[in-house]
Design goal:
This protein has about 270 residues and is α+β, with helices and mostly antiparallel strands. The chain is built from seven helices and twelve strands. The longest helix has 12 residues. The chain is globular and about 55 Å long.
Amino acid sequence: MTTEWNLTDKEDGLTALEVLRGRIPAAPDSYLRQLLRRIPPPASRRLEELLASPPAGGVEILFESRELLVAFKTAGLATHRGKGHEEDNLLDRVRDLMKKRRAPFMVAPVHRLDAGTSGPVLFGKGRRAAGLFGKLFMEDLVEKIYLGLAVGEITGGGLLTSPVPAKGKEKEARTGFSVLSSGGGFSLLELHLQSGRTHQIRRQLADAGHPLTGDRRYGGPFPPGLDRLFLHCRRLALQDPFTGEPLIVESPLPENLASVLHSLGMEFS
């Protein structure tokens, strides 16, 4: 017997996994993904495309549990509403997704990425979750690893400790760094954010004489093929306060940034 489902207006634009979540709310995601894999081709191939490529204006979910959702933020998209981002931002996209699911709670991001930076943003589901996860970020208990392409062929690694302006004062800031690759007058850095000041990485690297490429604010140049800030959050790691288990979210370097490295003859995997 074959069962045929027709999408409703509310389901239009959702991925296949999101549709199943709405229709079988009691089932865990692991079961729903197994169900999708059992669907024979070519339908299964189309469903995998939907899962891998969210529709325009949609949300790419990197990880989700009962208490949190980690969404991928593209460069150019603001985390919150703000000047120039009133009509489209990641928070509104996630809230629209929750409305389509008829979720009985509000969601809120517990940290932020600059509009020009790509990577994962963690949202708490409900006030208690947002508060607990937010506390981890406030107390610097979350490992935050970034990739950035800086001016100059840097060697080795170290710790950036120059102060960063915050709320009218100079605040202590710490950013560990190591060189992954270099060439053509640039260095690909892995950056470990040990404190959470606004524009911390960008300001400290500029103060050190090695601004990030694509950083108009701090004087970073644009190598051929680069049309954005070369700064990407590749990893968030923390201990989930609800389960006590370690939570690690990885986000690969976007293809447009990887292409810039390739054009400079720099190896990265």
